[in-house]
Amino acid sequence: MQYRAFGRTGLKISSLVLGTDNLVNPTPEAESLAILDAALDAGINLVDTSNSYAAGQAEILIGKWLGTRPRRDDVFIATKVFYPTGPGINDRGLTRHHILRACEDSLRRLNTDYIDLYQTHRPDPDTPLDETLHALDTLVTQGKVRYIGTSTTPAWQVVEGLFTSERHGLSRFACEQSPYNLLDRRVENELVPACQKHGVALLTWSPMAMGMLAGRYALADTPPADSRAMLRGGIYAERVTRRGIEVGLQFVALAREAGYDPAQLAYLWVKDQPGVTAPIIGPRTLAQLLHALPVADMHLPEELRSACDDLVAPGSVVASFFNTAAWMKWKFA
User: Fold this and answer.
1) Mean pLDDT in the chain?
2) Which of 28, 57, 144, 246 has the fewest CB atoms inside 10 Å of its own CB, making it the most exposed?
């Protein structure tokens, strides 16, 4: 397992991060626990979750798992706040009211005294950034949160957060978590350079582009019955585009011709892109996790990097994975 600097915190994290959006829903509890065990045993030391995954059940399962570990410090737990947690008008967003309450709920579900990384799941245009940062800083001061970060946030707002923290003497964003794969390379335009310039770690989600880069789809109109696009629909199905599938199949052929498994090459491509700290892998089964683990010790050949650039030009997009970000304007013909 390779380990990399986590921004400028001094911490080292594994070059693959375990994402937990599939735990409990749809992965059964026993297999979910086996995935967590196997990831830690393989050297993965960052587990990423959210209070919105499976309506909080993913956090509960991780809390149950943490209770079986001899050393809590062996694992870096990251969770998030933003999405609704109840029916109330204020049970959402990035207000001080919601952040402080949501953190207490996450601590209880996670069965822990502290959260290693607490991330804003999306930007909140209705709440001033300084209020959000003051609330997050309160949690750090109280010892309930160790580091703070953002997710699916524009580069300008990440940098604004850094400047606001510096101006007011508040805790600083340690990382940003954004979608990044060969089919959606827009983070290369501004976010990657901003993170590199300011020492912000970059975690990336959906490195396999919902399976399009693994050859899971043949036709956009007929996704596999067990695919996320079919099982969850909505925003997930929206990401699967005809052009994305076409490029995905070209990528599969390229990988196989070069002697690589397509899914592993999709992970590897993201892992070895400039500015990336670690891609988040989100296995649905234990077998999928075990299949991904060898990527941690692989290196991307320059000739393959160049061939991938020929499929999708740097900074461009053929399938939007920012479709849950209201600030990102995009449209396909």
Assistant:
1) 95
2) 28
